[in-house]
Amino acid sequence: MAAWIKYATWEATQGQMERSRSVFERALDVDPHHVPLWLRYTEQELKMRNINHARNLFDRAVSILPRIDQLWYKYVHVEELLGNVSGTREIFERWMSWEPDERAWNAYISFETRYHEYENASAIWERAVTCHSEPKQWIKWAKFEEERGSLEQARKVFHMALDFFGEEGDALERAQTVFTAFAKMETRQGEYERARMIYKYALERIPRAKSEGIYTSYTRFEKQFGSIKGVEDTVTQKRRLQYEEEIEAAEGATGNYDIWFDYSRLEEESFRSLVDEGAPETMLERARSKVRDVYERAISHVPPTTEKRLWRRYIYLWLRYALFEELDAQDLERAKKIYAAAVSVVPHREFTFAKLWLSYAQFEVRRLDLPLARKILGTAIGLAPKPKLFKGYIELELALKEFDRVRTLYEKFIKWDPSSSATWVRFAELEQNLFDVDRARGIYELGIHQAEAEHGGLDMPEVLWKAYIDFEFSEREFERVDALYERLLEKTGHVKVWISYALNKMASVIALEEDEDADAEENGEEVTLSEEQRAQRASAHAQAIQDTRSLFERGYQSLREEGLKEERVVLLEAWKAFEAEHGDEASVDRVQSKMPRVTKKRRQVPGGDGAMEEYYDLVFPEEEEEQKPALKLLKMAHAWRAQQQQQQSST
User: How many other CB atoms are found less than 10 A from the CB of residue 59?
Assistant: First the structure.
């Protein structure tokens, strides 16, 4: 075709236009679909100012090649240059009937705009978005309407676009740029509330994972034009959709309640913020319904097994739900129903939750329904008794000063678990606080009898013994204290018992002196001691010191007989500290002289085939004295043997 074009062009340069046309026509007969040939042919006619010939050529070209946009562009350009506006419009209409690409439609719209035919341009836009319905086309149309000052028409365009895309998930995802452009247009016009509503409408419908762009735009909008509350609402909505997606992704997972806790906390905080702002009741009711909906959905996920580990967090959802209804929604009847439903859903034969029962009972106490609170705790103890349930029930009755009921509960508690030392101690302390010393002493004796029983016993008998001794000491029954120590030593010769018994002698004297001084101060008297009183106190101190030393000596001998070396060292250290405080240098040296020394020894390893090992041992002075005759005899034997060996070697 290049040769044909050169030939025709040469003929035209020679002024032979007829021959040039003939060459072009013959070339078109050879290949009528060669676009450059048509373009050079029309250019040649235009150069020679043969306008009608050029028009005819363009008409023939677009009829043969209607999908070649370049020919149409040239055609409309020529007609517009000639000032033939109506003819240009007709050509555009012929072109648009072939549904060309977006640029062709934009060229038609630009043509109408240049001649201020905005209504025609708007009509063309409507046809263009029907042909090419991408979001960017709708946005361009709306922007066109905005720029020409027709805001209502621009809004109408956006509404048409959103209606066109519909409410389906994929369609909404495609339309999020339309939402963003719509909101930005309202922002440019100062319609911030309209823009905010558009953003919220879109965010409520577009999935969180696919709406990052619109979220970013909304956040930027709130930071620029909104209040702190608006920004918080944006974040809240964003988190709400995120939780919904996480719940959907975790559907079917067992025991995954963390998302529900976070989601319910978010809705509760949103509700409380509305209450603080004094929002109208309609908004409060809507927020309250959201919280309830989240909790109802959460508690519908009952753990599939009777494994308590899975149920623990599930029950806390019920508790939080009930607290919300009581404290925030202030719907006490609904809270009561929630507690009752929570109690009914737990398999109490397998396990129970004391916190649930106690929370239910405390709720009824706050409602001043004490009979029902007692009934709830009684039912709990009857179904599945637990120490925490007994303690909670006892604390409730103590707060109400119902001491007879407390006694009954302690009796049931001990009957259910007689091995709990702490329960015996608390029961006795109750009687002591009620100044019923005989009952307290009787309870301690029953507890000790339980510790001595062949079947059962106590989990920590030392706790009961210590509490009993402290009780008698507080009552200043020192003879009973001594008797208890003696009874305890019959059962155990532990070094701590000996030390406590010995130090108790001096503590008794000091306690009596403090009581005398306190009585004098209560009577408003100045604490001044006479010579006789000083002498009496000095005598009591001396006797207490002597008794303490005697007990330390008894303990030392007892531990020595049992062969407990390390315990003897512990006792000597306590004895030495006592002498340093209440004795003199001679008494301290006397105790120090009993201290052992550390020596290195060797012994045969058990099962080691005669192997020996070194170890450190404590050697007490009195033991060395006892071993001296044996050591002397051993030395003499070694000397005799050495002498015999020397004589044999000399002979």
Answer: 13
